[in-house]
Amino acid sequence: MNRTLYPLLMAAVTLTAGAAEAATKYVRPGATGSNNGSDWTNAYTALPSSLTRGDVYYLADGSYGSRTFSDANSGTTAITIRKATETDHGTDTGWSSTYGDGQAIFSNWQIYTDYYVFDGQRRNGDWHLGTTSQYGIRVAGRSPVRLDNGSGTGGDSLTFRYIDIQGGGRDTGSGDDVIYGLAGNSNITFQYCALHDSDRTIFLMRGNWKNLLVDHSYIARNTSTPAIHGEMLSMTESTDVTWSNNVMEDIEGTAFIAGLNGGTVANWKIFGNVAFHSAAYAADTGRKSGHNFGVAGFIFIANDASNNNTGNNFLVYNNTFMNLKGSYSGVVIQKGSGHEVKNNIWYGSVRTNNSFSGTMSHNWYYNTQQDGDSTSTKTVCTSNCDVFKSITGKDFRLKSATPAGTALAATPYGKDGDGIVRGADGTWDRGAYEYGGAVVTLPAPTSLTVK
To answer: Could you name the domain of life of the organism this protein comes from (predicted)?
Structure first.
């Protein structure tokens, strides 16, 4: 044999053997077959206690209880947990469409090892309104997702897509968090998810979280009180975070994004998001007395007698801040540098109190005191300011163009959350959404990999 080809052939054999080891397994509560996961008739009735790296586990509708994911790592080989649907369910053997038209429901996930993909495959078309009935996978309960074991070991390289994650609810006094990680988790993705309804934070992040992506997700409703202080996201340290195209509703506490309790946070890209307080929140409807009303900023990185935090390189572009209540609605970073705040809309919100070391330009304000912005490029609207399609309907797309913003890099800022190219008509609009253009509907991915 040609000695040059031999190593290549052996490598090909090794790769083929590795690929052959991966398998597709099926899980269906109520299955009455052989319980070996080979098809829908013989499906496991619950996820096996030990999962195999490289395998894909399809879930039928049903209740799955709580689950700890602690399978030993094998290099970067992932385990995929995927909701079965009519169009993607693996084998047809034993399949019934009734297995894929509902949700796989868990009460709690604890994830202690690395490289998992959790893929619900679908969600509601009006997800931005907070509707959650069509997410393929749902995790609902007090403190629903924990990403560390309490002893310094946590899950890294995790992907969550099309998952509805609901905490124990507001005003319970439990102080629970939706996503809880104390181990400085890294390479974490939440995309097309709903994360909502906690009694403290939506994200509690301790240690240096690295390479976090939160994109196209609905994030809503927490509680903050003098006794149990909360925010949407509370962190000590973090590096390289992208927060894009999300809808954030009815958050209270220090800020939507808060750096507290000491540490350095750096390299955040925040773009294409909508953050608002609803009419019901503004009226304090249905809440217990004593909670902290509103926020002290969209971003607040504290450096004071109680908090030694530094924030560097926050890029805050093309966001819409609507009807924000509390004391401040802007970007407050008390120590650090390199920040840019451009092309944003503040509409009917409390004073911004924008204060940071960096630059501002091309922001748009209506019925909002724009302190901290003395630039000549800002627009303070006084007439014809009803620029959104439906404020009462929570549709914050533009019905008319704004004054031109400043053009930004095409990647990653060149499209809004609907896939409309910014500036294609000659005007790069301000706010989360670009005016005009055709909405691009992206199909749900059928296979996902961990970054």
So the answer is: Bacteria
